[in-house]
Amino acid sequence: MGLSPRERLAQLAALPDDAIDLAEAALLIAAEAYPSLDIGAYIRQLDELAREAQPLLGTMASEPQRIIRLNQFLFVEKRFTGNQRNYYDPRNSFLNHVLDTRKGIPITLAVVYMEVARRLGLVVRGVSFPGHFLAKYAGDTEILIDAFFGQVLTEEHCRQRLRTVLGPNAAFDRRYLRPATTKEILVRVLENLKQIYLKASDDVAALSCVDRVLLFDPDSTRELRDRGLIYQRLECYRAAVADLERFLELAPDDESAEVVRATLVAIQRQAARLH
Predict the structure, then answer these.
(1) Residue 269 is part of which domain span?
(2) Domain tally for the chain?
């Protein structure tokens, strides 16, 4: 038998960042929700989008001109756009669903954009901008792309958006525009999904997301804490204690540490009542 999606994702997580195939990893995340998913078929869809775009971009145009033409191809001709009506539908985080419907959230639409651009020889990176994931052409001329709204952004646009997300006094820092690593992109996809499932009180699905985040960052204190709390709600007390104790070992002075200590006491009482 071949590897399960989780096992294959674990293999990719162990690789150096630049050796990870972003599209494959994103589809492996989706494959746990779609057990019969044909990952190769969706990789070929990305290949086909690039083949269709190639004649439109031309070979003599400057790279900024090629970016403008790629925007026209993906956002106008192919109608990739943000799913504003059902933004919090978990399927918006699954690359196969985004390719099928041509609707998604900022990060999955940016993944489509980056993967098509890469196949066309354009260096486009993800940007973990607060509240709204972006793409960035990283050539001699920097071009910021919002794949959700199909727009090119200026730095002033980004300043305005930052104030919307973090408050009117938020100070802009160009570090907000730094390229995200492949692992950071995949973790953000999983964390988005986790939050959707937690809001829906689907602890089992949220637990699956945390487990996969920890493949990329085994000592993430936030994820260890959150997994411990999920285990508590699922009455998996031994696992909950292990995660919460590990959290306190790594982050004894975290602002949530006292609450976690109190939770550990409560878990011991809950476990005692079961024996």
Answers:
(1) 219-273
(2) 2
